[in-house]
Amino acid sequence: MRRTAILIGLLLLPAVALRLFTAIYPFFNTVWLSFHDWNPAFPPQQFVGLKNFQALTRDIAVTSSISFTVLFVTVSTLLEIVLGMAIALMLNRAFFGRGAVRAVNLIPWAIPMVVAAIGFRWMYDTQYGVINDLLHRTIGVKVPWLVDFWGARAAVIATNVWKSTPFVGLVLLAALQGVPQDLYEAGRVDGTNRVSAFFYITLPLIMPQIVTIGLFMVVWQLAAFDLVFAMTGGGPGFATQVLAYRIYQVAFTALNFGYASAISMVLFIVVGIASIIGLLLFRKVEVSL
Amino acid sequence: MKDQPTVTRVSRRKFLKAATLAAGSLGIGAGLSACATPPTRAPQQPAQPAEPSPTQAPATDAGRKTLVLAIQGFAHDAMKPVLAKWEERTGHKVTLESGPVSGNEMITKYAPAFQSGVSPVDVMSDADDSGPTFYRAGWMEPLDEVIPQETWDDFPESFKQQIEVWHSFNGKRYRVPHEFAIGYTFYRKDWFDERKIEPPKTWEEVVAIGKEFTNPPVFGTIEAMIKPALAFVYMAYLAAQSGGNLFEFDDATAQAFQFAYDLIHTHKIMPETALSMDYTQQNEEYMKDHVAFMRQWPFFWDVARGNKNWYQEGKAEIALPPAGPAGAKSWWGGWGFSVPKFAPNKTEALDLIAFITNNENAPILAKGQSWFVMPRKSIMAVMGNEGLAVHMQRYAEANVPSPRPFHPKVAEAQSIVDDVASLYLTKQISLAEALQQGKERIAALG
Amino acid sequence: MRLARAVDSALLAIAVFIFLFIVLFPFYWIVLSSFTPKYELFTIPPRYWFSTFTLENYQALANSIPLVRYFVNSLLFAAGSSLVSVAAAFLASYALARIQFRGANLIFIAFVMSIALPQIGGLVPLFELFKSTNLINTYHGLVILMSSLVLPFTIWILVPFLRQIPYEIEEAAIMDGARLPQLFWFITLPIMRPALVTMFIINFIIAWNELIYPLVFATSGSNKTLSVGLVELAVQPTAGGGRPWDLLSAMSVVMIVPILVLVLLFQRLIVSGLTRGAIK
Fold first, then answer.
1. Residue A212 sits at the chain C interface (C-beta within 8 Å)
2. Which B residues in the span 284-323 are in contact with C, Cβ-Cβ below 8 Å?
3. What's the pTM value of the predicted model, to 2 decimals?
4. What is the pLDDT of residues B223-240, one digit of tens each?
5. Do A236 and B276 touch (CB under 8 A)?
């Protein structure tokens, strides 16, 4: 018994140590900092209680980024799952060149985010952009994507979905392949058609993976700022401002570490809420993780 | 009973594979750990600072140091001859390193290190939007005694205030300017000559002449204003001409905002899409013959002339800026050299910075790379009648350069201007709301 | 019936075609840009095929940053990080999937949820911690950071994968007196190979593109990565140079090609490695 405990400890040690060292310790440090006024350019560091949190309720740059953050992450994740599912179903069929198509699927994911962001900026360009050119050729309109409030939001979300969906598709493809074939055969005997087979057999079985990858995408995207940073800078106005980018700005252009930590806490609360919803969903779909 | 064969079968079949894998990963591991040791670990001298910096090469001869100088990659070639002279004189070595290209990345990259009391570099080229933060935090070395008076005297009178505000803190100087970035008015001399008109001298003329040229996709003028920072650049430019105190959002600043709005939405002589452009896109527009005149940083001089298929004499000439209510002004800023307080080889670094900025070497740098051209007397004496330097002198003589708007929390103040200008110019809020929001947020900075 | 099948294949073909177009077009456009002379990059209407084929962007790129060194650094950083993360995750998931103990599931959830701790918030305390442990500017320091970042996802994949492999083989080996290292080496590792290789590749790609950690923690030229090189080229907001699409597109091709090769080589394994219940 004791030896088992030691064994468990030893096996878990590297992973736990890594997380403690690089994620959990800095997190508690962030919590502590959020109650302090600390900007190395404006010393000294001092305890200010809830001042940072009061300040952020009045900070329009923070409050207006919360709504887009939630919108961005929710819409992106939903689209990624729906489109990822479609990709997975498609790549699960047998056809000539499937292996190559599966490999191609991962290309967007392998492109560095900064490059994708700047590349898409050019593609969205009103005059030179291929997107407007294609729109113009097919339906005869040109949209000033990044100047328009909703245009910019749509453009940022579309870029993000383009970049992240393939990975979701890959994970869901793997989930599909884990569904035992005999279930479908049983269904076929019962005369189930393909659509209802998907909804009554496939979907319930792979729901746990859908929920978990959804949760992962939510959390990852909440913390990502590089797309917005390189594509729109949060503009026009605050149309595409996200919390993570605001944290980056406050921490690394202003060195206002105390305040940045307070905004990090807001982000963390948003992530926490998302995680709890995810865990509740898990319970509902009732699966061993 | 079936178990026994399973195990042996696995082991037999997989053993070779496993062994290869193990050898491979051991190899990688060994490779990694070999690389992992910073070169300085071994010969750590007791006199050195406690933190070993991998940038210090093992001292072969006692007293010979290797310094690191960080500056944007494109300036490296121009630095080399000057550094070679210094190396010869002192016996030390200098390694060039590519530094970030913006103040924000300077802070992201170096603040954690400085905060921990280490510096990966000995001398660095530093931006306006990062420098003041660094010296306020006490991370830079004062240079007053290091840089000889004749170097300071080499800068024209108009630099005095800028150096006091942007290169100093608490009366001490921490940075020596090596770049003079001012917004120039580039214009299509060929087009203007054809119509026998002069480039706009006032805001009214900007509108009138702009209308004359505008015929989409051709526009009178253009200014890239995507976030972050570019809307700030233009608002600061217009506020310099209207006499506004930008960070106070006063009436003259309101005029500047209004003027930008009118150019786009009322007179329509600037395309609305400029609000989502960056400088590369703005330059492309100009070089697609879509723009009659525009404000742009000096780098466009070389960009235009480097576009061999397009460029012809007269396509990208420089005029004085148009005058607003407060005159023909344009704000300027730029990069400069600094020595971090925690520089591993501080004594040598201070000697090096004095050397590369002195009156003999500044012109050599300027000859090598237009980024180093400044209206310093020593530089103008050598190249005052070539290329961009002519216009630099012209701007200086016409008293165009106006100081960059300062705020102790400069990064935050700039981003407030950027935010409200972007909101207002994309019609999300009114001018009154923009000014109100700007004032409140500046006040909240304390 | 035959008609239905024909319609079905036609629909599938159309779907595949649309999919390939959406996925490949932006990539194609980046590649096209990287071989187009700087001053011909932007035209109205945009060009969809090579106008003048040139390598000058790549030459300019090689002149602006030490490409080979950054490439080697990226390779070591990404390979080291994925190796360490997969190894640590393997050990942990063995404990979590194979040894029945109270709280195993809780620990598992804690690992997975720990990705919620924001990376940017922790940079400054991390830097101080790294300074006091002499890890700044070292490969192992960077590897520790990066492998920790990808660890939760790796564990999330490995634990269920291991859980659905029948325990009998291992049990038999234990009965035969195999010690844990032998067991791992000869049985568990080989069975889990698809999942391990897959996670190695996925983590490799994530690390290859990681920007913030190398930017902040690799402060000296000797261990900067390609992604840091990207920052040295791009994104100059105020004064100066704009965002040089000629260099950036060439840079991204340099960064994508190795990944592409990796993905093409291991494509088959990648899917099966993520699959639960597909072990034969």
1. yes
2. 284, 287-288, 297, 299, 306-310
3. 0.86
4. 999 888 889 999 999 999
5. yes
